[in-house]
Amino acid sequence: MVFAFGHLIGAWLVGLVIEKFSKIKITNLGWGLLLFGGALPDIDFLFNLVFGFGYHRSLTHSLIFVIIAYLIIYLVLKRFKLEKEAIFVPIGILVHLSLDMIGYPGIMLFWPLDYFVHFFDINKGITLLGLAEENLLRKVKYLIVDTVLGAIWIGYLYYSRKLNFER
Predict the structure, then answer these.
(1) How many Cβ atoms are within 10 Å of 34's Cβ, its own excluded?
(2) Could you state, in order of their start, the residue ranges of all structural domains in the chain?
(3) Tens-digit pLDDT profile for residues 20-74
(4) According to DSSP H, which parts of the chain are helical?
(5) Of 34, 39, 27, 43, which is closest to residue 80 (Cα–Cα)?
(6) 47 φ, ψ to 5°?
(7) Which pLDDT band holds residue 163 (cuts at 50, 70, 90)?
(8) Cβ neighbours of 57 (radius 10 Å)
(9) Cα–Cα distance between 144 and 39 in angstroms, integer?
């Protein structure tokens, strides 16, 4: 299980790999879209909170969502003649999905099919929001690790002078 900072760091690292091996310099818009895509699938938490759906890692963690998000961003950016930048959204989403497939029970990659896919198994019809004590304790441990990763990332950006807190 990966939380917000873990997803952002994963997308950021993939961006660094893209820049290094493809000799492409990612623009600020490209970086923003990559990081946006890295966090976007967890928008289902907001839907759960507002509408009470109760399902995480379903539609927004599927290949259908990757395509839909890309098409929407592509059409919006096309109006500004920036459609080439749209490719960074699905890259960020795919990084997010890959990270979520590491942990059990995985994601509904082929939604609406009722199968959760992770790198080690495929499970049918598992409810994800059960908070048994062992699950809650495990989630708290992941949250702590995620917070530490976020602090390290912000520290790195600050000390490498890519982030400035002064006015």
Answers:
(1) 25
(2) 4-127
(3) 999 889 998 999 999 999 999 988 877 776 777 667 788 899 999 999 999 999 9
(4) 4-22, 28-39, 44-51, 63-78, 88-100, 133-159
(5) 27
(6) -60, -40
(7) low
(8) 27
(9) 18
DSSP tag of 5: H
Paired with 115 in beta bridges are 124
Distance from C-alpha of 98 to C-alpha of 143, rounded to nearest angstrom: 18
Cα–Cα distance for residue pair 131/96, rounded to 1 Å: 22
Say if residues 119 and 135 touch (Cβ distance below 8 Å): no
pTM of the model: 0.76
What is each CA distance from 142 to 103, 148, 151, 167, in whole angstroms? 11, 10, 14, 34
The reported pLDDT for the residue numbered 166 is 53
One-letter amino acid for residue 77 of the chain? L
Task: Say which amino acid occupies 49.
Answer: L
Backbone angles phi, psi at 12, to 5 degrees: -60, -45
Residue in the block written with tokens 């900072």:
5
What is the tens place of the pLDDT at every residue in 110-133? 988 888 888 776 666 544 444 444
| Residues in Cβ contact with 104 at an 8 Å cutoff, skipping those fewer than 6 apart | 118, 120, 121
Q: Helix (H, G, I), strand (E, B), or coil: what is residue 111?
A: coil
